[in-house]
TrEMBL record:
Name the UniProt record assigns to this protein: Solute carrier family 12 member 3
TM ranges: 131-152, 164-190, 210-234, 255-276, 282-303, 335-353, 373-393, 503-522, 528-549, 561-578
Membrane topology of the entry: Multi-pass membrane protein
Localization: Cell membrane
Domain SLC12A transporter C-terminal: 652-780, 820-1024
Annotated Acidic residues bias: 110-120
Compositionally biased tracts (Polar residues): 38-54
Gene: slc12a3
Length: 1025
């Protein structure tokens, strides 16, 4: 498509802000960002001024370049200014790119003078041969539709079905192909069409899964169709040779020799280029048109006695009336039998679309040429069936002696020929007639004015169809090879010359055709090929229907004369006809499609063509999400839907892998990333929303969403995620975080914010899970962003509001190769180990549910789950039976329950001293009365611990201290430890004290520790309703 000339070389003076004038005669010099002057010869540049901040954005008028994927030769492609350039208040020292307008014939203005000279000397690239709608589509489709059936079978079908039902067969076939043509036109006008023909249309509409399978079998069917049409030509030549007593070897080998020589000549024409191939097609078209004229002229030439003996009497009303009704004969004598024989002659409507890459304007040529070809071929079929049925009787002997004698009463004469002096009663009664349209396939040659011209027409029809298929198959296959949907075929996708001719694909098509020509018997394979073509028509109609019902805003075909319901009807009709033609061939065609479809679904090719399947998936997902609003939550359907504060997922793979173990194919998982910045910029926004994170998750085969937010601090970003993540009822109900190992060495503000996130989650009725591993969670990778809220100093960020932006902008997330995946303990298979669950407090059952979900995975299935509870030594057995009975009602399949009185006992003094040392730096000393201490108070530092806080939380502190000893004793060799996490009361338990509880209970443990706390609502039930 050419660029609109009205927009080429737009003058931007009216859009460019004018700098203030220094004086009446003095003109200001445009300056750049660094103060230097810009001097461009033929380019219009947005002018800056010293009075401005060194930057001025130019709003650009609409232009073709902004939407095109390719560049027009001879000038630089124009770029639309970004929203960042138009909207953001840029600092004085910033130097974003300036938007520039260039004239239509100017190349890159930043190039050196030498480069400019070289560019000026370069000639425009030579344009490949392109065809219009007549030569490229209409003639090509008409030639492929006209075939041997037109000359040799249409008169016979007219004799069987009668003129009336023959017209019905023709019109029904044309309706199907016409609707398919309109569907093709709609798809072809919904955007720019490239090379690839049928495969390109289906794959870009229905996606690579169906498109790839149809493209492969369609290319193969065209290759075999070359052999079919060539063998048809070879058989005709052999019969002509036999009439004159010429035989080369024998009947079969003569077909092989003639076929190989013919297809080799056709290959030479094809490889010579599309221009030569198109000229050959025009020659064949003229030959066929001459044969048609010869036939029509022959119907009005008075019939000779020889032709009358064969049943030809010129136009007669009573012959027309007799032949108007059906006269079924033989095993195929039925409407559907005749329909199955005729319908393949109506195919071939995609010949023009198959060379879409060689058309001047495919969006115009394909609709106009295809529909005109269908119209004119339908008219030709109707005319020939009507004229042959009005001129030739059904049965004739061909003997000149079978005239009606005067002694024979006319009442005893059988047949329409009796009125014209001929008596074919004997052969009609004995069913030995050799002529007439019911018995003689060469009726059109007999009727025509000069029979050899009909033979030439047969040659032209067969050779043109073979040539069209020989060109279509490589073109379709080349596009399929370039998309790399299937292995080992990329070699054939290379193009040569200015037209990018697929010479290698031509040779492959030639080899396939030659192999089937050597068989010399294609009666078994022919139905399969017809079914392959019908399968393509079916999917084209389905593509149009599917794209229409999805209501995608991107479905805007310029061809409006189509109906989605007619497309659906034609798709169903094509599928039915496939089984009417040959049921086993239809099963083979669908079987191959489904096998190739399964392979593509398994491989999941990395392509994105905006198919209607994607639009349909969105509609289905949206409707299902809205439908969940009408469904009340029930405890039986509870699923842990996890919001994982993972930061960049690649930096905490263990945390991501653990959550994936109990959410994959079960419930929702969202990886949240908070990028802290006071000055949002493109680099910061890229860190938060880069596709690199999703790519990493997909490479790791983690079924998770990703959501990145930008906030001034970690807690603000976490609150955004807690309140805004999810959609409808598909929203998180469990917050998963990593334990903050450096809470004592990091700034107190960071630790305080960390605990406040937990409080915010509890306020919003979230369950909370914290994962702690002895080796830590953070993995330092090159070119990754680690949130400073976890591993940095917030005080450092407070000095410069934009410093966070600088610190976190460590990568642009541009990846040229897949990132190496690190293996974690949660990806390994665990056998003969235990998952130890310390169910210390009843939180609704989340502490039990998560281990159960883990055991449903293969890598955790062989682990024994042991449940530990606290209790009194005197009632140990009784409490154990009580807990065991409850767990059995939950049907969790756990193996063992133990009651540990040690959990409720006081810890050792040494452990208490260790805990006191841990919180010593957070103690708030009570100042003596009357002193003028300037030490900050509790309100300024809420994380500080007073004596009253310690006394108030003494019991909980002692319990956490003693629990660590129990864990080390019983769970040293476990695969995973799950503990009910204590809850610190907001305002009564300082955040530093709460972190000390979590730290002391999980420190120095070799297995990973998962601290779990539900929202105190049931997630397990033993009721049926």
């Amino acid at each position: 498509m050419e660029i609109p000339k009205a927009l080429d070389g737009v003058q931007m003076d009216s859009y460019t802000p004018k700098p203030p004038q220094a004086g009446a005669t003095e003109k200001p010099t445009p300056v750049g960002f660094d103060g230097s002057s810009y001097e461009h010869n033929n380019s219009e540049v947005s002018d800056g001024s010293v009075s401005l901040s060194g930057y001025e954005t130019l709003d650009a008028p609409p232009h073709y370049d902004f939407y095109a994927n390719t560049q027009v030769w001879g000038r630089r492609k124009r770029l639309r200014p970004s929203l960042y350039q138009l909207h953001t208040n840029i600092q004085d020292d910033s130097k974003p790119p300036m938007y520039e307008e260039t004239t239509g014939g100017q190349m890159d203005v930043d190039s050196s003078d030498g480069d400019d000279d070289d560019d000026e000397q370069k000639a425009p690239p030579s344009q490949p041969t392109r065809f219009g709608w007549v030569q490229g589509v209409m003639i090509r489709c008409m030639l492929n539709i006209w075939g041997v059936i037109l000359y040799l079978r249409l008169p016979w079908i007219t004799a069987q079905a009668g003129i009336g039902l023959t017209w019905a067969i023709i019109l029904v076939s044309s309706c199907i192909t016409g609707i398919t043509g309109m569907s093709t036109s709609a798809i072809a006008t919904n955007g720019k069409v490239k090379s690839g023909g049928t495969y390109f249309l289906i794959s870009r509409s229905l996606g690579p899964e169906l498109g790839g399978s149809i493209g492969l079998i369609f290319a193969f069917a065209n290759a075999v169709a070359v052999a079919m049409h060539t063998v048809g030509f070879a058989e005709t030549v052999r019969d002509l040779m036999a009439e004159h007593g010429a035989v080369m070897v024998d009947q079969t080998n003569d077909i092989r020799i003639i076929g190989i020589v013919t297809v080799t000549c056709l290959l030479g024409i094809s490889m010579a280029g599309m221009a030569w191939e198109s000229k050959a097609q025009i020659l064949f078209f003229l030959i066929i048109m001459v044969s048609f004229v010869n036939y029509i002229v022959g119907t009005v030439i008075p019939a000779t006695p020889e032709k009358q003996a064969k049943g030809f009497f010129n136009y007669k009303a009573d012959i027309f009336a007799t032949n108007f009704v059906p006269n079924w004969r033989g095993p195929d004598g039925s409407f559907f039998g005749m329909f199955s024989i005729f319908f393949p002659s109506a195919t071939g409507i995609l010949s023009g679309a198959n060379i879409s890459g060689d058309l001047k304007n495919p969006g115009v040529a394909i609709p106009r040429g295809t529909l005109m070809a269908i119209f004119w071929t339908t008219i030709s079929y109707l005319i020939i069936s009507a004229t042959i049925g009005a001129c030739v009787v059904r049965d004739a002997s061909g003997l000149l002696n079978d005239t009606l004698s005067r002694s024979t009463p006319i009442e005893d004469c059988v047949g329409s020929a009796c009125k014209y002096g001929w008596d074919f009663t004997e052969c009609i009664n004995n069913k030995t007639c050799t002529h007439g349209i019911s018995n003689y396939y060469q009726a059109m040659s007999m009727v025509s004015g000069f029979a050899p011209l009909i033979t030439a027409g047969i040659f032209g029809a067969t050779l043109s169809s073979a040539l069209a298929c020989l060109v279509s198959a490589p073109k379709v296959f080349q596009c399929l090879c370039k998309d790399k949907l299937y292995p080992f075929i990329g070699f054939f996708g290379k193009g040569y010359g200015k037209n990018h001719e697929p010479l290698r694909s031509y040779l492959l098509t030639y080899v396939i055709a030659a192999c089937f020509i050597l068989i010399a018997e294609l009666n078994t394979i022919a139905p399969i090929i017809s079914n392959f073509f019908l399968c393509s028509y079916c999917l084209i109609n389905l593509s149009c229907f599917h794209a229409s019902i999805t209501n995608s805003p991107g479905w805007r075909p310029s061809f409006r004369f189509y109906s989605k319901w007619l497309s659906l009807l034609a798709a169903v009709g094509c599928a039915v006809i496939m089984f009417l033609l040959n049921w086993w061939a239809a099963l083979i065609a669908f079987g191959i499609v489904f096998i190739l479809l399964g392979y593509t679904l398994y491989k999941k090719p990395d392509v994105n063509w905006g198919s209607s399947v994607q639009a349909s998936s969105y509609n289905i997902a949206l409707n299902q999400c809205v439908g969940l609003n009408h469904v009340e939550d029930h405890v039986k359907n509870y699923r842990p839907q996890c919001l994982v504060l993972s930061g960049s997922p690649s930096t905490r793979p263990a945390l991501v892998d653990l959550v994936d173990c109990f959410t994959k194919k079960l419930s929702l998982m969202i990886c949240g990333n908070v990028v802290t910045s006071e000055c949002p910029s493109p680099s910061v926004m890229e860190q938060a929303g880069s596709d690199h994170h999703i790519t990493w998750l997909n490479q790791r085969k983690v079924k998770s969403f990703y959501r990145g937010v930008i906030a001034s601090d970690l807690r603000s970003g976490a609150k955004i995620l807690l309140q805004g993540a999810g959609l409808g009822r598909i929203k998180p109900n469990v917050l998963v975080m990593g334990f903050k190992n450096d809470w004592r060495t990091d700034s107190p503000q960071a630790a305080h914010q960390y605990v406040e996130i937990l409080h915010d989650a509890f306020d919003l009725q979230y369950g909370v899970c914290l994962l702690r591993m002895n080796e830590g969670l953070d993995v330092t990778l090159p070119h990754t962003h680690v949130n400073l809220g976890f591993d940095g100093d917030l005080e450092m960020m407070s000095h410069n509001p934009c410093s966070a932006q600088i610190k976190t902008s460590t990568s642009s997330f541009v990846r040229t190769e897949p990132e190496d995946q690190m293996t974690t303990v949660f990806q390994k298979k665990h056998s003969k180990k235990t998952i130890d669950v310390y169910w210390l407090c009843d939180d609704g059952g989340l502490t039990l549910l998560l281990p159960y979900l883990l055991t449903r995975r293969k890598r955790w299935a062989r682990c024994k789950v042991r449940v530990f509870v606290g209790g009194v030594r005197e009632k140990k057995d009784e409490q154990r039976e009580e807990v065991w009975a409850l767990i059995k009602k939950f049907r969790l399949g756990f193996h063992e329950v133990k009651v540990l009185p040690e959990i409720l006992q006081n810890p050792q003094p040494g452990n208490v001293h260790q805990f006191e040392d841990m919180i010593s730096c957070f103690r708030l000393d009570s100042a003596p009365k009357g002193s003028n201490s300037e030490q900050p108070g509790k309100q300024e530092q809420p994380w500080m611990i007073t004596d009253e806080d310690l006394e108030r939380n003494k019991a909980k502190s002692l319990r956490q201290i003693g629990l660590n000893k129990v864990l080390q004793e019983y769970s040293r060799e476990a695969a995973l430890i799950v503990i009910t996490m204590p809850v610190g009361r907001r305002g009564a338990c300082p955040n530093s004290l709460y972190l000390a509880w979590l730290d002391i209970v999980s420190q120095d443990l070799r297995p990973p520790v998962l601290l779990v706390r539900g929202n105190q609502e049931n997630v397990l039930t033993f009721y049926c309703q």
